[in-house]
Amino acid sequence: MGSKLSKGNPIHGEQLHFCRPCTEVIHPHVGCNNFSYLCFQSGFISAFKAYGTLFLFSTLIKTKFRPKLEDLVLKTLPTIIRSCLFLGVVSGVFPLLVCLWSKTGNHSGPSFFGIPFIAAVAGIAIEKSSRRTELAVYVANQAIELYYHMLVSRGLIPPIRHGREILFTLSFSVLVYFHKHHRHLLPGSVNSLLKVIIGVENNMDIIEKHVSRFYFWYKQHMPEFIECLFSEDENTSSHRLCKHSYGCKTYAFVGFLKAFLLGLAIKASFVFFPAIVLNPKNFFSGFASNLYKVLGKSTLQFALFWGIMSGGPRGTECLLRYIRGVDDGVNSVIAGFVGGLGVVFFSSIELAMYIASKAVETLFYFAVERKITKSRKHGEILLFAFCTASLFYASAYEPHNLRESYFSWLLKASRGHWAHFFDAFTPVRLEAGVPDIQAYNNWYKNFATNVVKQYIPEEQMQKYYSK
Predict the structure, then answer these.
(1) In this predicted structure, what is the pLDDT of residue 277?
(2) 450 vs 252: CA distance, rounded Å
(3) Cα–Cα distance, 52 to 325 (Å, whole number)
(4) 439: closest CA among 78, 225, 152, 137?
(5) pLDDT for residue 466
(6) 258 Cβ contact list (under 8 Å, min separation 6)
(7) How far apart are CA 316 and CA 322, in angstroms?
(8) What is the 3-class SS of 326-374, one letter each residue?
(9) Tens digit of pLDDT for each residue in 107-131?
């Protein structure tokens, strides 16, 4: 912890060395095999908490909260255990290989890259084939962001202003186009989400039906100066190319209102649900403070973000049908771009990268269908392994370029074991040279030190890492 940072460029070809053996700095209280088992156990338990909740909730939704015991035992439970083994194997194989690697004397970047690659292949091979693509896409969007920061830190490309907003808007435009014209190519989760947000023109969902009824009822009680803006009623006809059952202005506004209310409900659930589950005794005493959080500015911005994503594409597409007289993919692309502008109210790098990864995945399936490219056998395994190795490499050699949430997740999922590896690796990292040393210094001081302290006691840090 007390090591001073040395400036320099990355030297990946030289042989770099741990200052002390792994049994002294990485796992001073247990042997290599026991440490590997502890890491496996930590990964398995962390995965069980996450996947257990996710798969159980998914089963309840599919069975309309009437699951059969037989399905839970024979289908859901084996799926949970398999996914837990996947993360457990990655967590257990990686430290074992690190211990072997630390004894070789060659601690350069390329030699280290192969360790997480092997661990990732061993783990993903256990996972169900239907989930491998989803996992590969998840780590790929993390890796793309990582490589962008790596290029910026080396001065190879300039930082892109409002990059996440531009990325989200363009990606959402792509997804809206495919939702309208090639829905079978969209990933199932994205297709379901867009059905809720944008809807299907000739098939209103139950939420939209209730919202439209409320809208037409409330419209009768509007003041006259407002009612003139919403002159359409239930019998107003739409454009000849439109498939919705009522007027275009109403169709767009109802879509906005439905998504806006959904955004409010989601934000409220994020506040009240944890309070009910984690602290039910103090729910009513803390109700006022929770309500204040829900009614804050951030909630309104989140709801507007949802509303524009729904009402924007609807209104724009109807308007373009009037102007152009055709209904084609150009309308959908422009409509999706307008809907994506809602990101100005709620900007998130995680959301932008997720939407971008789904857009890239959809474009890949489109290219395969049109025979522009071919689907490679076991390509998702190689993609997952390469991206995971990239993330692990960055966490060791240039962690300031890694997304902070991912670094925190590594510490949490390993139950603190990653903190020992991170600190033991500091001399190797500094000897190799850290790109953009000033950014690393700031990251180390303002973020890394605080999160590592949560897992390594102060006296242990001084004993093993201060020299």
Answers:
(1) 63
(2) 48
(3) 51
(4) 152
(5) 44
(6) 199, 207, 208, 211, 310
(7) 10
(8) CCCHHHHHHHHHHHHHHHHCCCCHHHHHHHHHHHHHHHHHHHHHCCCCC
(9) 666 778 999 999 999 999 999 888 8
